[in-house]
Write a structure and sequence with these properties.
The structure holds 2 protein chains of 2 kinds. Chain A is an alpha+beta fold. Chain A is built from 8 helices and 20 strands. Chain A is globular, with a radius of gyration of 20 Å. The longest helix of chain B has 26 residues. Classes of the chains: A alpha+beta, B alpha/beta.
């Protein structure tokens, strides 16, 4: 049975959700958009937006052998992580298929958190059992609020935070009477505030108040998806079907263009041998479509023969055209290559489509 | 910490001894670690050989090193309670005459069955022995069929079916029909599908193999139980012993099962998460029990009219067993080697034998009974996959590296070849 749970921010989100549009994601019910998704996405680029990202899977991994287990699980060596630091990594099936991608944060010597867009708790728990490592998913007890945009640092400072934080770092803080974690894990140059569920409405209110001067808007799922796509990040389920069997060999990290998340010198991660031996004929590129109509999961052709296919596709309000992620043969991956998609011309561009806007100094 | 070797072989059974000898032939320095006090493993308990690789015999000069055969082609005698024993020898016409006493239809079918199995065996041989591609003409039906069903398709007599099914180690398991074909694909003493008895039983083969490996310069260490594999990243680097000592080498060959090697000895999950769970889920292997009886008088199995230089199979009642008799080297004593399926008590084995050789119990001077696990048959797994592991430099050379566990030496020979190729690859700049 699929259960739909409300996030700790639900009460506040409902008050702002004037159109009463909701969408289920990963078992949570979330605002699809509060008003206009394109406006919200533009706010995240030009001013500031906050978004409820409690739907992200957060798995806590702890035990004496947690580091040893994670060294097997993910494609980079967690021994390199200091407490308070994080990195992005993949986890693969035995035969090198991508099962998931996420962010591994070290909270202590024996405690790690794995944050990802799609839960893979079964795989992680079954692996952890071999190492006597405890694994649990954080569900109702915490909320996570993202604050993104060029004014994000300024808003946080107004709210009483010290926004000086490196990307992929996090800090546990006692913030005006609340225990929160401030992190910079996202692809959009923003911050995330992780709070206890009971404190969530208060956090929402404080950020909304601090952001008033910067025209901060709450952003729904639709706007955040636009930002994700503009950042060129492939998401499991939305863009690709992750390997579900333990011995699946597809999709490979190379065809998804995720090879930067693999440390080839890390000798023991699961699926390494097959993954590195797999042919590297395809890669991920961005596609700018001619027109406003998105073309998700459509074939891409070059002079009549298919050279790839698009993944997720959306209208980008910042680029004022439809864009798509795509997997294409390396021969057709050079930026500027003109392809055809559904009878319309499609131009290959480098990823990301748009870089993160420079922050306005606080 | 001892001086590094080129290769470590875990286990001193036939697989380990053959692998050590072949590795020495290529000039590698080899240390063989045996948990037990004596080398030889299952070799020392068995009486008959049906799968010894002729290339191993020749290349390791086993004949020069004392391997002599007392019997080269032993008939299968299926003992029946009703006295109508079935004698199945090499000549299919003679066998057919014995079968005719049970059923004339089966007698006619036997010749057909015999030629069909032998023809299939010749076609399948390279697949099992030489790392060849799967023959396309293995009928899909045969891949999934049990030996029991395959025999039921040919014969009507229970006596004949159960006698022939004895040689398929799990006759009711899907795919075990191929075990009958595999059995016919073996060659002993130059004869296809034969069963031979070394002079002195399997101990003679064990002694010849130990001599071969020793003369070639392999180092042996007994009472050296391996506790853990030591890896460098995903590469074999050595082993740690129960004593706390460590032995280092870039190549490790294990005669243990895949599960024991990858789950119990290797660091957690080094075979891969899914593979480790798959190995842990595997049902326990079948067991077999070797009973060695020393008697003060020759046992007469099934009556004096039967030639006693045969392999007697009792496939009626429990436990099912195979018995071979021979005169002992020491004067006036006789040996009876028994291989029973499952893990029966010594008493049950003797009781089963006494149905066909009365008063056996009173003649026993000494007895020994050892139960061991039988590796799962992997008749459809390519040779390379049975031997290689997800860990670089780690190879299997024991019973589980064979299509059907047998005293053949083939897995050891092939594992040594794969290990040598791996070493050559690694040394290349």
């Amino acid at each position: 049975m699929t259960s739909i749970r409300a996030t700790p921010f639900h009460g506040r989100a409902a008050a702002s959700n004037v159109l009463n549009l909701w969408q289920p994601r990963a078992g949570w019910t979330l605002a699809e958009r509060y008003d206009d998704a394109n406006e919200e996405a533009l706010a995240a680029r030009l001013t500031c937006a906050m978004a409820d990202i409690t739907w992200r899977s957060r798995v806590v991994i702890e035990g004496a052998r947690a580091q040893e287990f994670l060294a097997r699980l993910v494609t980079r060596d967690p021994a390199a992580l200091e407490p308070g630091a994080a990195f992005k990594a993949l986890w693969l099936s035995d035969h090198g298929g991508v099962r998931g991608a996420g962010l591994l944060a070290r909270h202590g010597r024996e405690t790690f958190h794995l944050v990802s867009a799609a839960s893979d708790l079964d795989w992680i728990a079954r692996g952890a059992a071999l190492f006597d490592v405890r694994v649990r998913e954080v569900l109702d007890e915490e909320g996570m609020l993202a604050v993104v945009g060029p004014y994000a640092a300024k808003v946080l400072e107004t709210a009483g935070f010290d926004p000086a934080l490196e990307p992929f770092a996090f800090r546990k803080l006692f913030w005006r009477g609340l225990d929160v974690t401030l992190s910079r894990f996202g692809e959009h140059g923003g911050y995330e505030i992780t709070t206890k569920a009971d404190d969530a409405p208060l956090v929402w209110d404080r950020i909304a108040k601090a952001g008033r001067a910067c025209a901060l808007k709450p952003a729904g799922l639709a706007a955040m998806d636009i930002l994700d796509l503009e950042a060129g990040v492939p998401r499991p389920v939305r863009d690709y079907t992750p390997a579900s069997g333990g011995f699946d060999a597809a999709p490979t990290p190379f065809e998804l263009g995720l090879e930067s998340l693999i440390d080839e010198s890390h000798a023991i991660f699961n699926g390494r041998a097959t993954c590195l031996a797999a042919p590297r004929t395809k890669t991920r590129v961005g596609i700018e479509l001619d027109g406003d109509a998105p073309m998700p999961h459509a074939p891409l052709t070059l002079s009549g023969s298919q050279v790839g296919r698009t993944l997720h596709s959306l209208y980008s309000p910042a680029l004022r055209r439809a864009i798509a992620l795509a997997i294409v043969d390396k021969a057709a991956a050079a930026p500027g290559t003109m392809l055809t998609c559904g009878g319309m011309s499609a131009r290959v561009v480098a990823l990301p489509f748009l870089s993160v806007p420079d922050p306005i100094p606080a | 910490m001892s001086a590094p070797h080129d290769a470590i072989v875990i286990g001193g059974g036939i697989g380990g001894l053959v692998a050590a000898a072949y590795l020495r032939q290529t000039g590698a320095s080899v240390v063989l670690l045996e948990a037990d006090e004596a080398l030889g493993g299952a070799c020392r308990k068995a009486a008959v050989l049906h799968a010894l690789d002729p290339r191993v015999v020749k290349e390791l000069a086993l004949t020069r090193r004392g391997l002599k055969f007392a019997q080269r082609d032993m008939a299968l005698v299926a003992l029946r309670q009703d006295g109508r024993h079935l004698v199945l020898g090499r000549d299919p016409h003679e066998a057919a005459r014995a079968i005719a006493a049970h059923s004339p239809a089966d007698a006619a079918a036997y010749k057909h069955y015999h030629s069909e199995v032998f023809a299939r065996a010749r076609a399948m041989r390279p697949w099992w022995w030489d790392d060849a591609l799967a023959p396309e003409h293995v009928p899909a039906k045969l891949k999934a069929m049990s030996a029991h069903a395959y025999l039921a398709g040919h014969f009507e007599t229970e006596a004949l079916k159960s006698a022939l099914a004895f040689d398929a180690s799990q006759p009711l398991a899907p795919g075990s029909a191929l075990a009958l074909v595999w059995r016919a694909a073996q060659e002993m003493c130059g004869l296809q599908g034969a069963c031979a008895m070394p002079d002195g039983g399997g101990a003679t083969l064990a002694a010849a193999l130990i001599a071969a490996a020793k003369e070639m310069g392999a180092e042996f260490r007994t009472k050296a139980r391996v506790k853990a594999l030591i890896l460098d990243g995903n590469r074999a680097a050595g082993v740690a012993l129960d004593s706390g000592e460590t032995v280092f080498a870039p190549v490790v060959l294990s005669s243990l099962s895949r599960r024991a090697t990858l789950v119990d000895l290797a660091p957690s999950a080094s075979a891969g998460f899914a593979e480790t769970h798959r190995l842990m889920r595997e049902t326990p292997a079948e067991k077999e029990t070797f009973v060695t009886l020393i008697l003060n008088a020759a046992p007469v199995l099934g009556g004096t009219q039967l030639a006693q230089a045969a392999r007697f199979v009792i496939a009626e009642g429990e436990p099912m067993l195979e018995a071979v008799a021979a005169e002992s080297a020491s004067h006036g004593q006789h040996m009876l080697w028994v291989r029973a399926k499952g893990a029966p008590a010594l008493d049950a084995v003797i009781a089963q034998l006494e149905r066909f050789t009365p008063l056996l119990r009173g003649r026993i001077v000494a007895s020994e009974s050892v139960t061991r696990d039988v590796a799962r048959s992997q008749l459809l797994t390519p040779a390379r996959e049975r031997i290689a592991t997800p860990i670089e430099g780690l190879f299997l050379c024991g019973g589980e590296a064979e299509p059907v566990e047998a005293l053949s030496g083939r897995a050891g020979r092939l594992a040594a070849a794969l290990a040598t190729a791996y070493t050559a690859r690694r040394k290349k700049p």
